[in-house]
Amino acid sequence: MKILGLDYGDRRIGVAVSDAFGWTAQGVEVIDRQRNTAVDERIAELIQEHEISEIVVGLPKNMNGSVGPRGQICIEFAEHLRESVHLPVHLWDERLTTMSAERTLIEADVSRKKRKQVIDKMAASLILQNYLDSKSKG
Q1: At what angle do helices 69-85 and 39-50 cross, to 10 degrees?
Q2: Taking the mean position of all CA atoms in its chain, how far away is CA 118?
Q3: How confident is the model at residue 138 (pLDDT cuts 50, 70, 90)?
Q4: CA dihedral of residues 95, 101, 104, 110 (deg, nearest 10)
């Protein structure tokens, strides 16, 4: 069964999916929350389409490990997801994933416009890959 990774943001939600073995994460899409008001429905479609068994939501923590207002919003989103899709939802520390994704895209000489289109999807991939890596070590 596959795992869905989400990078939840005010404007966009980056989406990634694991392979069936839970070894690798691939970016799938970016849900534009301003254009797509049916976010719950789109996530439900992705769950069915990819045969998802659990979900990982990135939790932005402060550098000292505390959870601020942005993190609290992600916790509330994860709780909402848990109730609406009836699957296990895990929160995963996402500190620096967006910065890491941006650095990788800059090093690959991706234009600013194209970076904006893929950075959330790439951040979701990093969140999910870090989660998968931690499970394989345990």
Answers
A1: 60
A2: 12
A3: low
A4: -150
Q: Taking the domains of the chain in order of start, what are their residue ranges?
A: 2-137
Amino acid at 76: E
Using an 8 Å Cβ cutoff, are 27 and 6 in contact? no
How does pLDDT run across 88-130, given as a tens digit for each residue? 999 999 887 878 888 888 888 888 888 887 889 999 999 999 9
Q: From CA 115, how far away is CA 124, in angstroms rounded?
A: 14
Q: pLDDT (tens digit, 9 = 90+) per residue, 7-17?
A: 999 899 999 99
Which of 134, 117, 92, 86 has its CA nearest to residue 8? 92
Q: What CATH number was assigned to the domain covering residues 2-137?
A: 3.30.420.140
Handedness of CA 29, 34, 39, 45 (dihedral sign): negative
